[in-house]
């Protein structure tokens, strides 16, 4: 991957979203099952992956012109300066540090532009790759929420991480950010 950037999702990304969904068996827990088809993925882009810096910000992680993942904020609370952070990558784009760079870029932007002081995220404790992303992006582990998630009849513990605007900036090259 040579050209990397973050930008809001576009309806034209539906095909890339459908391809990411089909290539990544774990995305069925994060995305609407309709994302498997191009038409359903276009609906998911329009309804679930929107951009509104006041409530929820979703950015496509774009590699060489194709959306290969998402990084976003939700539960933005300007009063307390907090938000929930999340990310995912299509399986073929994993293992190169792209999710950590995207998450660090979003965290930097959220602190600078939205004046958010605390960003939180969580991952299943049985997902060490997601933990590496969080730590690499400068999110410190804070604790475990027992039996937080329920998938396919099974309960999962979640490790919570947070990054403060006053925390040291991770030594990662930030991605280009193109906003509306």
TrEMBL record:
Annotated transmembrane regions:
none
One cellular component term from this protein's GO annotations in UniProt: cytoplasm
Q: Which residues form the N-acetyltransferase domain?
A: 4-165
Question: What Pfam families does this protein's entry cite?
Answer: Acetyltransf_3
In terms of superkingdom, the source organism counts as Bacteria
Record GO terms (molecular function): protein N-terminal-serine acetyltransferase activity; protein-N-terminal-alanine acetyltransferase activity
Which PANTHER family does the UniProt record give? Answer: ACETYLTRANSFERASE, RIBOSOMAL-PROTEIN-SERINE ACETYLTRANSFERASE
Q: Give the protein's recorded name.
A: GNAT family N-acetyltransferase
Lineage, please? Bacteria, Bacillati, Actinomycetota, Actinomycetes, Micrococcales
